[in-house]
């Protein structure tokens, strides 16, 4: 019998958890707004201005499915996972349900430090 690798074990656990519905707040339906696009937001969270909106056009390569998130006017690099959850460059290992939640998690993680621009791959 082949030895069980860490990747296979984690994949199997994720599949079992998802099929049992035990991943709270991580369903694609909960992560999406109207027509599968996350809702636009513009608010102050813990004294920091967070904004999010759909983006259009080419130029910067977005993994965020055409969605831009800003913290105090600086772009927070976000990415949408295959399961519909979102991660950011600041809280990469903590998937959340929405880009707004990713912005809030980044503010929490920054603990008052400024967000530095993420260098664009060229």
CATH class: Alpha Beta
- Count of distinct strands: 6
Structural class: alpha+beta
How many individual domains?
1
Report the biggest beta sheet as strand number plus sense, adding barrel if it closes: 4 strands, antiparallel
Poorly predicted ranges: 21-34
Order of helices and strands: HHEEEEEEH
Shape descriptor reads globular
Helix content: 25-40%
CATH superfamily: protein ne1242 domain like
Count the DSSP helices. Answer: 3
CATH architecture: 2-Layer Sandwich
Keywords: Copper, Signal
Signal peptide: 1-31
Family: Belongs to the melC1 family.
Protein name: Tyrosinase
Question: Overview of this structure, please?
Answer:
This is Tyrosinase. Keywords: Copper, Signal. It comes from Streptomyces djakartensis. The structure is a single chain. The chain is of the alpha+beta class and 122 residues long. The protein has a single domain (25-110), classed as protein ne1242 domain like (protein ne1242 fold). It is built from 3 helices and 6 strands, in the order ααββββββα. It has helices at residues 6-20, 28-31, 99-110, and strands at 41-45, 48-54, 67-71, 74-76, 78-80, 86-88. The strands form 2 sheets. Strands 1-2-3-4 form a 4-stranded antiparallel β-sheet, covered by helices on one side. Strands 5-6 form a two-stranded antiparallel ribbon. A hairpin with a 2-residue loop joins strand 3 and strand 4 (74-76). The longest helix has 15 residues, at 6-20. The chain is globular and about 45 Å long. It starts with 5 loop residues before the first helix and ends in a 12-residue tail after the last helix.
């Amino acid at each position: 019998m082949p030895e069980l690798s860490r990747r296979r074990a984690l994949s199997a656990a994720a599949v079992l958890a998802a099929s049992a519905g035990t991943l709270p707040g991580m369903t694609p339906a909960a992560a999406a707004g109207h027509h599968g696009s996350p809702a636009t937001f513009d608010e102050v969270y813990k004294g920091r201005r967070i904004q999010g909106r759909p983006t259009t056009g080419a130029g910067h390569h977005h993994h965020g499915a055409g969605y831009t998130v800003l913290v105090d006017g600086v772009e927070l690099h976000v990415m949408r996972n295959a399961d519909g959850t979102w991660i950011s460059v600041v809280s990469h290992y903590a998937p959340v349900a929405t880009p707004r939640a990713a912005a809030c998690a980044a503010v929490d993680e920054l603990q008052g430090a400024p967000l530095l621009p993420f260098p664009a791959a060229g």
